[in-house]
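dumping the sequnces here before i forget
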Amino acid sequence: MKAITPRAATVRRLLALLLSHAVLMTGAVFMLLPLVFMAVTSIKPPAEVFEATFRLWPRTFYGLENFQAALKTAPLFHFLLNGVIVCGGILIVQLIVAIPCAYALAKLEFPGKPVLFALVVLGLCIPVQAPALPLYIAFAQLGVLNTYFSMMAPFFLSVFAVFLFRQFFKSYPDEIIHAARLDGVGEFEIVWRIVVPSAWPAIAAFSVFSIVAHWNDLYWPLIVVSDAKLATPPLGMMFFADSEVGSNYGALAAGAAIITAPLVLAFLLARRRFIAGITMTGIK
Amino acid sequence: MSAIATAPARAARPVPRRWVESLAGIGFATPAFVLLVLTNIAPLIALAILSFTDYEMGAVDINSVGAANFSKALHDPVIRRSLGNTFLYVAIVVPASVLLSLLVAILVHRRTRSRGFYEVVYFLPVTTTLIAMATMWQFLLHPQLGPINAVLTSLGFNRVAFLSEPSLVLPTLAAIGVWQLVGFNMVLFLAGLSAIPRDLYEAAEVDGASHPIDRFLRVTWPLLGPTTMFVTVTTFITAFKIFDTVAVMTRGGPMGSSMTLLYAVYLEGFQYFHLSYAATLTLIFLAFTLVFSVTQTFFLDRRVHY
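..and the predicted 3d for all of it:
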């Protein structure tokens, strides 16, 4: 092995550091490109948007006009509200349904348990797009297309939530459950008042996963909703981009910014929760 | 009468514990089971039955047509094209996003002060609504008005019609797919990297692996094996389901050159309402994803443990 002088080693370390930052920064530019572009376009007047030479910062601030134009063309805040209703509704039912089932699979003996677990694992392999067609036909027959219910119902059961919570509950100490039973605490209370509070990390992780997935989902809302009043943010964005504002790029960017902001802000505020959630769930 | 009679009896001799447990178990599992049947099992059975019929939206009668839908799909040029396009898209997105995210994760993992910054920047695209970002990409890539072409022409290159040139449209969509996936995969790789004990690197160094590439090949790569496998399979499934960017940016065009399988399923089922044919296509779509989702589930089973 060659002897390396301390000085040469320092130089090498610095070079390596410089190189890795150069690589990471190049990637970072690519990552931020559409976001930065959206931000600056949303505050540019039309004349500057269409200039031949690209300038990052606008000379005249036109943000107010663009955001006003965007909000006048489409009920963007209403889309966000729809997103909150749909994601919130889905998540609440998912938790209410999956938690007891996961507890039963983890801690209770009951007939049909192995079959149910096999079905849950099988369900993990089925993409949501597979049952979409029969569900659509059923919803059309029932006359519930274009309702919040039709947007939420297919996702009420998350086999993934059952699977994740079951794994989590399995490691919950049996002694505590036995002690609670001896004290006369019912199974229902054991689940919701004793076990659930300890499963907070898994519940938070799943919530992040569920909200990110359904907030950004386009496929299912596109199928069941044609009424713009019910559009979730991605669907609303699609209607919005197709509308006459489509050629007014400043307003389009302003609209995109309004649609994108809630989840991005939530991520920036709760970065660790998001990353922990993705690490724990690891599946989109 | 019986209520009065049994109440003291129950207090004296409690119902066997086993029964209570079974009852509670069934009670807790029933809502999930009913929903599983309604939203997954029954629709899949209906899908299988539909695919052997000629059912269309609004049709009064329904006839069995055997495997006619399957042979139609097999010879349908649109479906063949969309399958080929989907595979090409997957063939670009999977290796590119897995390798790039591995590189980024390794570089980010060593940073101390700037780690948080890079994590946020690379993860941001995951949280953005892809439809909104697709609109921005469309503008960025615009042949006349887009800044990317402005940069290209100022550097002396010709203008590139990223989304209207048939040979370029899929690679362009793939680049956007990679853009969206890198941060997600990076987070998974970072978790894998922090699980590697530090002393293994020191041991490798003692053994003569002093160069970073040696250390990577001897320690990082083998120990990241399961993570890499998991990330690859997950990325495959996501990439195979490409829909959003096609629906917003190209609608399968120009001339079918960005038609993908899920988009074809969507058009047949929910735009043309050829329900039985769409059911057949969904089954084909399911067959391809199943291979990978079964692998993924196997990994999930081993990954998630506390």
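The longest helix of chain B spans residues 17-50.
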